[in-house]
Amino acid sequence: MNEEKRINAGYEIIESCTIGSTELVIGHNPKAPNPYVCWYCKNGTDYFWG
Question: Superkingdom, according to UniProt (predicted)?
Fold first, then answer.
C-alpha cells in the first residue's frame, strides 16, 4: 500500500475506519501532552469533533 501520510494539528493519522459515510481517525504525536487523539473526518481533510 502506498498511501501518503495524513497530518492534522501536528498528529499523524495512524488508523482510520469508515462507517457509512463517516470516517473515524486516530492521530498520534509522541511529543504532545496527549499523544493520541480521535476525530471524525469528512472528505479526507475536514477533521472535527476531536
Answer: Bacteria
